[in-house]
UniProtKB/TrEMBL annotation:
Gene Ontology cellular-component annotations: FACT complex; nucleolus
Species assigned in the record: Tachuris rubrigastra
Sequence ranges of Basic residues compositional bias: 517-531, 624-634
Keyword terms, alphabetized: Chromosome, DNA damage, DNA repair, DNA replication, DNA-binding, Nucleus, RNA-binding, Transcription, Transcription regulation
A GO BP annotation: DNA repair
HMG box domain location: 545-613
Ranges for region Disordered: 458-551, 609-704
Name of the encoding gene: Ssrp1
GO molecular function: DNA binding; histone binding; nucleosome binding; RNA binding
Xref: PROSITE patterns: HMG_BOX_2 (PS50118)
Identification of the protein by name: FACT complex subunit SSRP1
Keyword RNA-binding appears in the UniProt entry: yes
Coiled coil: none
Subcellular location: Nucleus, Nucleolus; Nucleus; Chromosome
Functional description taken from the UniProt entry: Component of the FACT complex, a general chromatin factor that acts to reorganize nucleosomes. The FACT complex is involved in multiple processes that require DNA as a template such as mRNA elongation, DNA replication and DNA repair. During transcription elongation the FACT complex acts as a histone chaperone that both destabilizes and restores nucleosomal structure.
Length: 704
C-alpha cells in the first residue's frame, strides 16, 4: 500500500464557505493546503479520534474529529475512493472509517448534542445538520428559546445569519435548560468579550489601513483596535501572516498583518492591517502578568519587562501571541541598495517587496502574491516613456496585477531575482504598435541573457544621436524662417511709396487721404510647414547603417538551419525555445567567440555611424545654403514686383497731381531727363529691389 494519498480539487468547509485546495494523507497525518490563501492545516496522526464518510452535496465527504474537539470537513470525493481511504485509515491511523448518512425526513423536532466544537441536531441516531460553534457570533436567550447569530460570510452569495431553538421546560429543580444550552454554546463560540485587563497597551499607533491613529490593546485571544471613530476586535485565529518591511528611506518600518476573514467597516473590507513606525521611537513595556505566568505561557519568548524600538516590541508581542513567523525581505537588493522597488499599482504609488516566497505591495491597496499561485510574469515597455517599464503578474486563477513606472535601472536586478526563483517569464516585450521580431527575444524566457535590455540600451544611444542631429537642423531652420530685418525693410519701402504719393497731392482728395491713411497691404510669404519637416526628420533613414546584432542573435542566425535540420517540422516557437536551451548549455569559450564577433560588429557600426552622421550633416548644410539662395532670389523678385505695383497705384490715386503739373510731350522732354530715367531703370533692373525708392523731394525735383 502506498505511504501517501493525494487528492486535488478537494473542498474544505470553513465558516459556511467551500475553499478548494489539495489534500494529502501520509503516515504522519493529514495536510490540506488552501489554494486561495495558501493556509495549511496540519492534523497529526496521533490527534485523530474519528473518521466519518458520508454523502454530501458535492458527492461524498470526509469528516475528521480530533481528540481536542476540533472538526475538519473535506468534500469532493468520488464514491469509488471510499475503499482506498478506508484501507489507508486502517493501516496507518488504526481507525475505522464509519459510514453515516444524514437524516432527510424533514422533521424539526429532535435532540441537540454538543461534541467538541460541534453542535449536532439529531433525529434518532442520524444527524440532520451540524453547526460549528466557532461560526457563532452571538447567543441570546428568551423564554424557552435560544437564538444563535452567525458571522457574515463575504465569499458566499447567501449567508445563514440566525437559527432559533425552542427548548421545552423540564421538571428538574435548580437547572434552567435554556441557560444550560446557552452556556454550552458560549463556551465554544467565537464571541469576543473584553473581559479582564489587557496584557499590554500600545498608545496612538499610526495605522495606514484602516487609516488613522489607534490604541492597540493586546488580550490573550484577540487584538482590540480602539480609535476615535471606530473599534475593531481581531481574533488571533484570523491572522494568516505577519510581515516586517523596511521603508525605502531606511528611517521607517512597516508592520503588516494579513487577515482572513478581513475586518469590516460598512461595505469596506480590510484584508491587511498596516502599521507604520519610526525607527527612532523607543518604548519600555511591562506586561500585565506576573513572571511565572509569562514564563509558563510564552516559554521565554517574552519577559515581564522589555524595552527597545517600538516596532520591535509590537512585532515581538504579536509573534508570541499569534504563534506565527514574521516574514522579512530576503536577499533582494535594488539599484539604490534598498530591499524594495518604487512603483505604481492602479492609481497610487507604493513599494513592491520581492520576498523569498512571494511579492507584497504596500500600501494602497495592499497586495500579497505567493510564488505558487503565479502563472507567469511579464516585463513590458512603459506606455509613456522609455525611462521606465511595467512588471505584470498573472495568477493561475486569471487575475492580473500590473506594477508600472518602475525605473529602468531596476530591470536587471528584478529580472535576475525572478529568474533565480524559476518563475515562468512570458516577455511580450513592447506594447502594441511597436512590432518587434521574435528572433530578438527568443531566449529571454529561458536564459539570463536579456535581449530586451540590450535592445533598450541600443535604442537609447541611437535616440540620443538623432536628437542631437535634429537639434542642430532645427536651429538653422529657425534662423531661416524668422528674419525681422527683411520684413521691416519690406514694410518701410511700401509705406515710403504711399507717403510720396499722398504728400505730393494738393486737392481735397489729399486731405481725405491724410485723415484716413491708406490700408497696409498684407505681405504673404510662402512658408513651408514645419511639422512635415520635423516628421520627416523623425522618420528612419533607409541609408543609415543597420544596428549591430548581439552575440546571441549572431549565433542564432548561423545555427538556425542546423536546428531545423536536426528537428524537422519544428514550429517557430519551439525553435526559439530549443535555441535558448542550446545557448544556455553552450560552454563559456564558445560564447566568448560570439561575443568577440558581436564586439567587432559594434565597432564597425560605430565607425559607419560616424561617417554617416558627418555626411548627413554636410548634405544638410549644402541643402540649407541652396534654400537660402533661392529664398533670397525670390524675395528680390518680389520686391521688384511690389515697386511696379506701388508706382501704378500712386499714379492712379493722384490724378490731381498729373493735372496741376505742366504737361510735357515727348518732343519737349530734354535729353538729360530721358537719359537719366533710362539709366535709373537699368540700375533698378540690375539691382532688383535692394535700394529704397526715391523720396518725395527727389520726385518733386525730377518733375521740375
Amino acid at each position: 500500500m502506498a505511504d501517501t494519498l493525494e487528492f486535488n480539487e478537494i473542498y474544505q468547509e470553513v465558516k459556511g464557505s467551500m475553499n478548494d485546495g489539495r489534500l494529502r494523507l501520509s503516515r504522519q497525518g493529514v495536510i490540506f493546503k488552501n489554494s486561495k490563501t495558501g493556509k495549511v492545516d496540519n492534523i497529526q496522526a496521533s490527534e485523530l479520534a474519528e473518521g466519518v464518510w458520508r454523502r454530501v452535496a458535492l458527492g461524498h465527504g470526509l469528516k475528521l474529529l480530533t481528540k481536542n474537539g476540533h472538526v475538519y470537513k473535506y468534500d469532493g470525493f468520488r464514491e469509488s475512493e471510499f475503499d482506498k481511504l478506508s484501507d489507508f485509515f486502517k493501516a496507518h491511523y488504526c481507525l475505522e472509517l464509519a459510514e453515516k448518512d444524514l437524516c432527510v425526513k424533514g422533521w424539526n423536532w429532535g435532540t441537540v448534542r454538543f461534541g467538541g466544537q460541534l453542535l449536532s441536531f439529531d433525529i434518532g441516531e442520524q444527524p440532520v445538520f451540524e453547526i460549528p460553534l466557532s461560526n457563532v457570533s452571538q447567543c441570546t436567550t428568551g423564554k424557552n428559546e435560544v437564538t444563535l447569530e452567525f458571522h457574515q460570510n463575504d465569499d458566499a452569495e447567501v449567508s445563514l445569519m440566525e437559527v432559533r431553538f425552542y427548548v421545552p421546560p423540564t421538571q428538574e429543580d435548580g437547572v434552567d435548560p435554556v441557560e444550560a444550552f446557552a452556556q454550552n454554546v458560549l463556551s465554544k463560540a467565537d464571541v469576543i468579550q473584553a473581559t479582564g485587563d489587557a496584557i499590554c497597551i500600545f498608545r496612538e499607533l499610526q495605522c495606514l489601513t484602516p487609516r488613522g491613529r489607534y490604541d492597540i490593546r493586546i488580550y490573550p485571544t484577540f487584538l482590540h483596535l480602539h480609535g476615535k471613530t471606530f473599534d475593531y476586535k481581531i481574533p488571533y485565529t484570523t491572522v494568516l501572516r505577519l510581515f516586517l518591511l523596511p521603508h525605502k528611506d531606511q528611517r521607517q518600518m512597516f508592520f503588516v498583518i494579513s487577515l482572513d476573514p478581513p475586518i469590516k467597516q460598512g461595505q469596506t473590507r480590510y484584508h491587511f492591517l498596516i502599521l507604520l513606525f519610526s525607527k527612532d521611537e523607543d518604548i519600555s513595556l511591562t506586561l500585565n502578568m506576573n513572571e511565572e505566568e509569562v514564563e509558563k505561557r510564552f516559554e521565554g519568548r517574552l519577559t515581564k519587562n522589555m524595552s527597545g524600538s517600538l516596532y520591535e516590541m509590537v512585532s515581538r508581542v504579536m509573534k508570541a501571541l499569534v504563534n506565527r513567523k514574521i516574514t522579512v525581505p530576503g536577499n533582494f537588493q535594488g539599484h539604490s541598495g534598498a530591499q524594495c522597488i518604487t512603483c505604481s499599482y492602479k492609481a497610487s504609488s507604493g513599494l513592491l517587496y520581492p520576498l523569498e516566497r512571494g511579492f507584497i505591495y504596500v500600501h494602497k491597496p495592499p497586495v500579497h502574491i505567493r510564488f505558487d499561485e503565479i502563472s507567469f510574469v511579464n516585463f513590458a515597455r512603459g506606455t509613456t516613456t522609455t525611462r521606465s517599464f511595467d512588471f505584470e503578474i498573472e495568477t493561475k486563477q486569471g487575475t492580473q496585477y500590473t506594477f508600472s513606472s518602475i525605473e529602468r535601472e531596476e530591470y536587471g536586478k528584478l529580472f535576475d531575482f525572478v529568474n533565480a526563483k524559476k518563475l515562468n517569464i512570458k516577455n511580450r516585450g513592447l506594447k502594441e504598435g511597436m512590432k518587434q521580431s521574435y528572433d530578438e527575444y527568443a531566449d529571454s524566457d529561458e536564459d539570463q541573457h536579456d535581449a530586451y535590455l540590450e535592445r533598450m540600451k541600443e535604442e537609447g544611444k541611437i535616440r540620443e544621436e538623432n536628437a542631437n542631429d535634429s537639434s542642430d537642423g532645427s536651429g538653422e531652420e529657425t534662423d531661416e524662417s524668422f528674419n525681422p530685418g527683411e520684413e521691416d525693410d519690406d514694410v518701410a519701402e511700401e509705406f515710403d511709396s504711399n507717403a510720396s504719393a499722398s504728400s505730393s497731392s494738393g486737392d481735397g482728395d489729399s486731405d481725405r487721404d491724410d485723415k484716413k491713411p491708406a490700408k497696409k497691404a498684407k505681405i504673404v510669404k510662402d512658408r513651408k510647414p514645419r511639422k512635415k519637416q520635423q516628421e520627416s526628420k523623425k522618420g528612419k533613414d533607409p541609408n543609415a547603417p543597420k544596428r549591430p546584432m548581439s552575440a546571441y542573435m549572431l549565433w542564432l542566425n548561423a545555427s538556425r538551419e542546423k536546428i531545423k535540420s536536426d528537428h524537422p517540422g519544428i514550429s517557430i516557437t519551439d525553435l526559439f525555445k530549443k535555441a535558448g536551451e542550446l545557448w544556455k548549455a553552450m560552454s563559456k569559450e564558445k560564447k566568448e567567440e560570439w561575443d568577440r564577433k558581436a564586439e567587432d560588429a559594434r565597432r564597425d557600426y560605430e565607425k559607419a555611424m560616424k561617417e554617416y552622421s558627418v555626411g548627413s550633416k554636410a548634405d544638410s548644410h549644402r541643402g540649407e545654403r541652396s534654400k537660402k539662395k533661392k529664398k533670397k532670389e525670390k524675395q528680390m523678385k518680389g520686391k521688384g514686383d511690389k515697386k511696379g505695383a506701388t508706382s501704378k497705384s500712386s499714379s492712379s490715386k493722384s490724378p490731381a497731381k498729373s493735372m496741376s503739373d505742366s504737361f510735357k510731350s515727348k518732343e519737349f522732354v530734354s535729353s538729360d531727363e530721358s537719359s537719366s530715367a533710362e539709366s535709373k531703370k537699368e540700375d533698378s533692373e540690375e539691382e532688383g529691389a535692394a535700394s529704397p525708392p526715391p523720396s518725395s523731394e527727389d520726385s518733386a525735383s525730377g518733375s521740375d
